Amino acid sequence: MAVATQPRGSVRDLRSYLEVLEAAGELARISTPVALDQEIGAVCFRNLTHNGPGLLFERPGGSDIPLAVDLLASRRRYALALGTEPDLLASEWNRRVATLRPPVLLERGACQEHVFTGADVDLTRLPAPIWNELDGGPYLTLSCHITKDPETGIRNVGVYRNQVHDRNRLGLLAAPYTHLGLQKRKAQGPFPVAIVIGADPVVLMTATSPVPFGTDELAVAGALREAPLELVRCITIPLEVPASAEIVIEGEIVPDDLLDEGPFGEFTGYYGGPTELRQVIRVKAITYRDKPILQQTYEGRPPHESAILTGVPREAELMRQIALPGIKRVHVTAPGGGALHAVVAIEKLYEGYGKAIGMAVLGTHPGRFIKQVIVVEDDVDPFDPHQVEWAIATRVQPHRDIEIIKEVTGIILDPSLPRIEQSVHARTSKTIIDATRYDMKSYPALCLPRPDVQEQVDREWARYGLPGAQEVDQ
User: Fold this and answer.
1) Parallel, antiparallel, or unpaired for β 104-108 and 230-233?
2) Residue-wise over 50-60: b if at least 16 C-beta within 10 A, else e?
3) What is the pLDDT of residues 348-399, one digit of tens each?
4) Measuring CA to CA, which residue among 170, 177, 176, 192 is closest to residue 259?
């Protein structure tokens, strides 16, 4: 084994990413103390609704542990973490993950510069906020849970919410269909879990992506960074974690060890998952870097960071996993929380092809959470809600172009589900809207200025003295 070295590239961990954001004008530092009980949540909510920068609270609740929030809450900031452009996210994702890069194991890493075990464990030292009014307590919202399949040994990384119950117990909401749930059901006793906070952004990107079950997601993270991730062994459990992470919480899920968890304001904008007895992670150790930074995200009504974290990789994975030709662009929308609503732009090959694409979307792993698929032709920008609504309004006959599929798996956090479905199977109905032109040859012609005239106006926009000249020049 080796001693930690720096992976190539300008972003290699959370701290270098903060430097990149600050240089790009995408980070705001808040030096005044801000209360953990809802004040931080209110600041985040206002900042998100105004498309503000990532936030670094330097004295959250008076703590000496800074709190970084919503760093990846825009496509530009997501692209900055990967060293690419926002318009290239899906294609760049798929180019990089075509070659997985398994991680390498080091003898030691910065994440274990400080180690606390046993009676010295104290989760309450972390400045975890009470984000919204009815939250059941302080919550960690951006926890990358690293686990291993008890049979295959393959690693998984997933993001789940954690209620801070006390000094050494965390609540956990992870549905049976999640990868953590699928692995845990094979365990014969305590199930080890390592919670990683503040790692290289590619770890978080991978943890929120719908890669197929059985894939080592840390190898996917290495592919996104185009360099193998460096890991170190945990102190008290048989798992490995990113060496440059800010904070690592080592623990176990013990069968039948339950506590009331919730309520918690979720990414849908509603309280998600009724308060119930849920499993507990008993913490055995906390390790962290010197002067650690706690990275979190505000959950609530969109827009928010979760919509970007879950939406961007779903767009890429849908394009990668669907074998049908003609898919041009995919948008998993922010108002749908980056999970519930997808718009797909296609080259229409024949009548009925829009519905075929819609069914293919819902049949993929990333399509499991999607509740509504709108299929448009490639003359419609799927990222422009005005154009999408125009296509629905002028190209859809409801009796012909809308299909409802019943009793399929959705997501337990969908607030429109009956209470019993939110607690167990999450069976839902799904809609496919074929907003492509029917009998295109007989459709009225589009009314637009001639393309060369529009291009000339775009090039010379500054001379008209109207707003938007800078955007056009770029």
Assistant:
1) parallel
2) eebbbbbbbbb
3) 999 999 999 999 999 998 998 999 999 999 999 999 999 999 999 999 999 9
4) 170
Q: How far apart are CA 334 and CA 319, in angstroms?
A: 18
- pTM confidence score: 0.90
If asked whether residues 292 and 330 sit together in one domain, one would say: no
Q: Which residue has the higher pLDDT, 217 or 175?
A: 217
Q: Quickly state the pLDDT bin for 410 (edges 50, 70, 90).
A: confident
Angstrom distance (rounded) from CA 198 to CA 67: 10
Instruction: Name the domain boundary from 245, 262, 296.
Output: 296
Closest residue by Cα to residue 214 from 153, 159, 144: 153
How many domains, in total, are found in the chain? 2
Q: Other C-beta atoms within 10 Å of 421: how many? A: 15
Residue 272's domain comprises 2-296
Alpha carbon distance 233, 146 (integer Å): 12
Q: Cβ-count burial of 290 within 10 angstroms (0-12 exposed, 13-18 middle, 19+ buried)?
A: exposed
The answer on 159 and 75 residing in a single domain is yes
Q: What is the pLDDT of residues 93-118, one digit of tens each?
A: 999 999 999 999 999 999 999 999 99
Question: Per the domain annotation, does 311 fall within a domain?
Answer: no
Q: For residues 235 and 115, give the distance between their C-alpha atoms in angstroms, rounded to a whole number.
A: 8
The two tokens of residue 217 are 């997601």
- In terms of Cα–Cα distance, which of 73, 86, 79, 71 is closest to 329? 86
Q: Are 276 and 261 in contact (CB under 8 A)?
A: yes
Q: Decide if 259 contacts 97 (C-beta within 8 A).
A: no
CA–CA separation, 186 and 457 (whole Å): 63
Residues 252 and 387 in one domain: no
* Residues above pLDDT 90, as percent of the chain: 82
Token pair of 377 as six digits? 């032709």
Is there a domain that residue 452 lies in?
A: no
